[in-house]
Automatic annotation (TrEMBL):
The keyword Oxidoreductase applies. Gene3D superfamilies: 3.40.50.740, ADC-like domains, Dimethylsulfoxide Reductase, domain 2. It comes from the Bacteria. It comes from Shewanella aestuarii. InterPro entries: Mopterin_OxRdtase (IPR006656), Mopterin_OxRdtase_4Fe-4S_dom (IPR006963), Prok_molybdopt-oxidoreductase (IPR050123). This is Molybdopterin-dependent oxidoreductase. Residues 1-70 form the 4Fe-4S Mo/W bis-MGD-type domain. It holds the Pfam family Molybdop_Fe4S4. GO terms for molecular function: 4 iron, 4 sulfur cluster binding; metal ion binding; oxidoreductase activity.
Amino acid sequence: MTVFQSSCAYCGVGCGLTITSHSTPLSSESPQLDGTPAAFTLKGDQSHPANLGKLCAKGERLLESLVQPNTLRYPRLASGKVVQWDEATQLIAQKFAETRQQFGPDSVALYLSGQLLTEDYYVANKFAKGYLKTANVDTNSRLCMSSAVSAMQRAFGEDVVPGCYEDLEQAEVIVLIGANTAWTHPVLFQRILAAKKLTNAQLVVIDPIKTATAKQADLHLAIHPGADLSLFTGLLGYLADNNKLNHSYIAAHTEGFDEVIQPAQHLSSNLAALAKHAGLNLELLLQFYDLFASSTKVVTASCQGVNQSIIGTDCTNAIINCHLALGQIGQVGSGFFSLTGQPNAMGAEKLVV
């Protein structure tokens, strides 16, 4: 019997897996790739910090995905012909060499995903930039995370997320914006619900649609699409108007605050108009603003609903600005958190993008 660790690549949580290879088949109901009974079992890794042993329905059935009739087990040409790995590798190398010789090194490219290991990205970079002599290597993480990355670079000087999953269990208020976490990050959402039950944390969901996540919220803000930037810019102004700013933190750790606060206070000077613009009633807007302003530990987590927007970077910065204004960055149970679409989007960003 051999036990080894792996991870699930289905979503951004990156749940740890413990896979056991048994010396003899366990069941005829779980066939291997060749149709014989499988000798593997799978469960969540209890020591993994992302999932602590828990798995969602997809993760629990990963082994079953290996034996689907349409699973591509061997390389296949465009004609449909199946070829051996050595033949496929040789053909790819030949095409790369011919294309580079005819059109130059920038005529080829590598396009990766956010589901690979960091070490895989390193090797791909070395192959592309060191051997092929081209900078044309990228991942699909750019499509889902570029606005969040740009915002964090603008706010912190580098692509860094100032928080971790454990902060969700310490927070007094958890704000989810542009994220249907119950569906897209199910294990993490169960962790949020467990923490909410344990600590009586308030869950705020900002989403135009009453999603499965919103149905679990203590406060659901069904804003108009695109109103998230105004919502958080107005929140910053509200914090200033009500003397909630952490002036010592702002003076010691930020710059350009005066330029940001003036337009924010312009919005907050007419909260009724802001509420109407956002598609909310004034009472609901004030309830959210008061909750955010009066809590010492707030985590705001965003996902693709914010990222996939022409104002995604500005919106993310507006969220971060509110946490900076309160000094809630790098503190336990508080701060901004970017929920990724793939488990190693950050590794892709660091080594490729």
